[in-house]
Amino acid sequence: MGLFSKLFTAFRGAATEAGEAIVDTQALRILDQEIRDSKTHLDSAKENLAKVMAEQMGVEREVKKLQRSVREYEDYAIQALDKGDDNLAAEIAEKIADLENELEAQQSVLDGYNSNIGNLKQTIRSTERNIKSMEREINVIKTTDKVQKANAAAATKFSGTNSALRSATESLERIKQRQQQRSDQMKAALELQKEEAGGDLQSRLRDAGIVKSNSSTSNVLERLRAKRQPPKSLPSSSEPQYFPSGSSSDAHYNKS
Prior knowledge:
Elements: H1 2-25, H2 27-82, H3 86-157, H4 164-196, H5 199-208, H6 217-227, H7 248-255
Helix pairs in contact: 2-3
């Protein structure tokens, strides 16, 4: 019996663990359903509150009607007393007593309605606040759950020696190596082309000052300045020329 009892206890424990695991995995779904149930109960409570308020309005109308009747019959009683009709006044007083008793009963009912309606309104407001607060918390929990699932998926996918991230990194490194190899090949081809055309030798000769460098703008300007001849200075035709008397110029004119 001890063995069967332990086995039964073990089965119960396994069933409890399985049930808790199911509850844990379906926790968000259970919370959503509980919120829906709470809203359904809240809507039902609001409907009941509306019915109670309608009944309260009816009782309140009855109370006001009785109050008006009491005042009306009081006026009648005063008029009967003024006329000296005590019997009529006593009959009216009896009527007023009945009305006041009914008014007291209806007022007690109305007070109960007012108190209950106040409590129901406060409970409904508190329940609405709790539901809204719970919905905000559920939204946060759902967002957190999605983020954690995304992080777990990323960690699973991009961790380990065969992860996609490691593979992508290795592919990127291979692409960089191939690009560097192509760049080195192009540079080597340009070097060979220069050597075959003698360009590298000419560059070294120019650097050593043995061969003049290629023509440049400054060299062209210097060459043009050197070729340029200075202009001859001629006397201005607008200025008169004077010759002293007895000079060679006068003798030349006299001879002519």
